[in-house]
Amino acid sequence: MVLEPDLLPPAPGQGALAVQARAGDRDILSLVEPLHDPATAAAVRAERHLMLLLDGGCRLPVGALSTPGTDGGLDLLGGLATDTGGVAIARAHGLLAAPEVLAEELASVLRARRADVTPTVLEVAV
Question: Which of 27, 46, 63, 91 could connect to 99 by a Cys-Cys bridge, CB 3.0–4.6 Å?
């Protein structure tokens, strides 16, 4: 069974790859620089910041999926486990250059919706 992101967003940062290099190693840095994609970096920053703001992780399930918008902005879909056993889902759109601001706006919406969402039961056939 495939769960659509609108039903249950994935964990923040899924699918993103990172390459590390020593700060002063110009040879290696010049080799990996072409791999850097600013839109992907902004998307990961938005997702990880949302998780941080909601205190997600082992203590609280948080989902996030950020994608570049058609207008050059950034779309962020977030999911947060509710007090009643459901999942609050919301989305926001903002500037690619300000992923943390976008995450802050979405975190505020998800916190407000968290207690109001009725439980969602997913039936999975195996």
Answer: 46
